Amino acid sequence: MTQHYTRALKRLPLALALLGASGTSLAVDWTGYFRAGPGLTSNATSRACYGLNGGSSGMKYRLGNECDFYGEFQLSQGFKKDGIDYKVTLMTDHYTAATDTNGDGLKIAQMFAEAKGFDIAPEATFWIGKERGRRGDVHIVDTYFTEMVGVGAGAKGFKVGPGALGVAYYKTEASAVLPGHRGNIEWVGIDSNPGGKLNVFATVTKGQFAGGTKGAGLAIRHDQEKLLGSSLNNTLWLQYAQGSAGLNSNFGDLTAGSKAKSYRIVESINWQQGPFGGQALILLAREKNKQGISTKSFSVGGRASYALSRHFKMVGELGVSQYKPDNGQTARLTKLTIAPTLSVGSDFFSRPEFRLYATMAKWNKAAGNVTGQAAFDDKTSGNSFGAQVEWWF
Fold first, then answer.
1. What pLDDT, in 10s, does the model give residues 235-259?
2. pTM of the predicted protein model
3. Can you give the CATH number for the domain in which 201 is found?
């Protein structure tokens, strides 16, 4: 696979040159994201990162706490004919759970076609392929709390009342993955109040195999600009899932029955006031698995940046997360990172960022080994140091 990928990369400049020479109507958009960098720990072992091994998604604060090598790169080609705007998109991504990469792990993250302007529904966009749909994330924990992703087909943008309606069907049947169906309905961009937008996502799932189960989920997201007239932008998620549906509007455990019931509340704010910017999160969740065992999760944390000059800022992040299963002990983790940072701009979300960081973590015995490294089997604290670049374009 690596050899095929290398040959494809060698041909890419020629392909792009030919497209560019054919005219501006064939301009290729190239976008992407990546993070990488070296690191070490005070325990004379491989770089350690700190995250609870249970509880809800979205409780690992990422600054100075990413022991991976990751990138995603997307090519999009747009066309126009007879009043129809259509586009093809290809995204590859690579993930290695270590500082360096051995070339494995490359995959197709997106490959789909979309078109808009058909006379039967001029306002709607139709698509088919592998696509990442409505994704709603909190950056500091690198978690998409809504993520309609997969191989499917759908249409979106139908004007219905104060919002836009979309429908999609997804099918999973890759090797080593249990086959299943999923349907998603979205009603988004609803004007709810001045500066506020309401978005509603409904999900139904069914495992297509002996022992496969049904599921359903509902997620409501409210986005608020200039909260109470301030510089704060606020996002609130209210989410519920049952059976084989996931809280994030995706597939869950396709063997989970009606005993599996979960809810999650996520509150996130971000701000930029002069040189001071940041993002914060509060998460509450209760998730019951197919055996009926319930786990309660809680997390609170934030990242703040202060620009000392146009291109230099100090960044700090503090997060406290915990979970408690039925009849079990509470597992807790606290993580603090300080990171002097070079950036192309002074705002919190300016990228690229070139960081040096120092990370300190403490956890209790109920959390177990939060690093996954044998050197920490009997530890309840750790320190890590390193450098990282993060870039999106």
1. 999 999 999 999 999 999 999 999 9
2. 0.90
3. 2.40.170.10
